[in-house]
Design brief:
By secondary structure, this protein is an alpha/beta fold. It has a single domain, classed as P-loop containing nucleotide triphosphate hydrolases (Rossmann fold). It has a five-stranded parallel β-sheet, sandwiched between helices. The longest helix is centred in the C-terminal third of the chain and has 23 residues. It is globular and about 50 Å long.
Length: about 210
């Protein structure tokens, strides 16, 4: 793979997006970053990971109010406001830009697509992964080891948080197909088949994979 390849993945909870990212990482031989984004931001800021996890992919305030989309590229505050959620998001944004500038990689969630687009990063591939509710429930039951009622509760809660988080920090609608290069429904194909579909798309985009 001659040119650098950066892939961002936004995903519904239960859609298999995280596993898809891991499989693409193996197929492409590039690093996969999920929790590592938090770790990098924590190390850079000297702020404990627990502060980042408290607000991880959750809106800081009323999701009907836009947050820091207009100043996404400003340096984080290292003073009294260092642990404010909007400031922690800026540290995560710095970590995402740092990773993407350094290497080919796969970045999971945390508005990575918006962050890279806002800094005019250049060519990257943005994916959104979704599926129907029945398949989300089936996956969550299997992976989390919970019953149907709990699976539904988790899906609704986490996807609401991700939607509101994305809106708060970007001003955009999470899952809007106009925002992504490739939107894929995992309901009727397996995750390995989905990975092969994405690989084919990358070849069509001119990547030697």
């Amino acid at each position: 793979m001659e040119k650098k390849l950066v892939i961002t993945i936004e995903r519904e909870y239960g859609s298999g997006g995280r596993v898809l990212g891991q499989q693409l990482s193996q197929l492409l031989g590039i690093e996969y970053y999920d929790d590592d984004i938090i770790k990098t931001a924590s190390e850079t800021s000297a702020v404990g990971e627990q502060y980042f996890r408290l607000y991880d992919e959750k809106p800081a305030k009323n999701p009907l109010i836009f947050g820091s989309a207009k100043n996404i590229n400003e340096k984080p505050d290292t003073g009294a406001r260092i642990t404010k959620p909007e400031n922690l998001f800026k540290f995560e944004a710095e970590a995402i830009r740092q990773i993407a500038n350094r290497e080919s990689c796969i970045l999971i969630g945390r508005c990575a697509d918006f962050i890279l687009d806002s800094c005019e990063f250049g060519d990257f591939i943005s994916l959104f992964v979704y599926c129907n509710m029945a398949d989300k429930v089936r996956r969550v039951i299997k992976v989390d080891g919970v019953d149907t009622e709990e699976a539904l509760r988790r899906i609704q809660k986490i996807n609401r948080q991700r939607r509101d988080y994305y809106r708060y920090y970007t001003g955009n609608t999470w899952g809007d197909p106009n925002l992504y290069d490739f939107v894929v429904n995992t309901s009727n194909i397996t995750i390995p088949q989905t990975a092969e579909l994405v690989m084919h798309y990358l070849r069509l985009r001119g990547y030697d994979v």
